[in-house]
Design brief:
Elements (H helix, E strand, L loop, with lengths): L1 H4 L3 H25 L4 H6 L3 H24 L3 H22 L6 H6 L3 H21 L3
Helix pairs in contact: 2-4, 2-5, 4-5, 4-7, 5-7
Length: 134
């Protein structure tokens, strides 16, 4: 019975490791594209940076979850993870249009711009996930 339950363990490990790599790649690329150092700001107790990055990560994770659930194989999942990453980067640049100096305002600890960026990232991540109907 236990062995039967663990039959899916290899696939779980493959997709789980792919997800970890995708999240690390997302954080690496996203934090290089933004003009401020999110992790340094978070280490310095800047809640605005934590909110913006955390919600952005959730916005990336939703389509990643959808990709894992619907992908026909791990390569398919990786391709759709890349699509999710690209969408989040586009959202970062679009959200900056109505809010002047958005990155600097987040670096300065302003919560409203951080919440705006984070929730927009989350909203578009949810839309992105829903559109992954392959």
């Amino acid at each position: 019975m236990v062995l039967q339950s663990l039959a899916g363990l290899p696939a779980f490990l493959v997709y789980f490791c792919e997800a970890i790599l995708a999240v690390l790649a997302y954080l690496f690329i996203y934090t290089r594209i933004t003009p401020h150092n999110e992790f340094e700001l978070i280490r310095n107790n800047n809640p605005a940076a934590a909110i913006a990055l955390g919600l952005s990560l959730l916005g990336f994770s939703l389509p990643l979850i959808s990709a894992i659930m619907h992908a026909s194989n791990v390569w398919d999942c990786m391709i759709w993870s890349l699509v999710a990453l690209i969408v989040q980067i586009i959202v970062f640049f679009i959200v900056r249009i109505p809010v002047p100096n958005l990155p600097q305002r987040i670096a300065d600890g302003e919560l409203a711009p951080a919440i705006w960026l984070g929730l927009a990232s989350l909203a578009f991540g949810a839309i992105n996930a829903a559109c992954m109907t392959y």
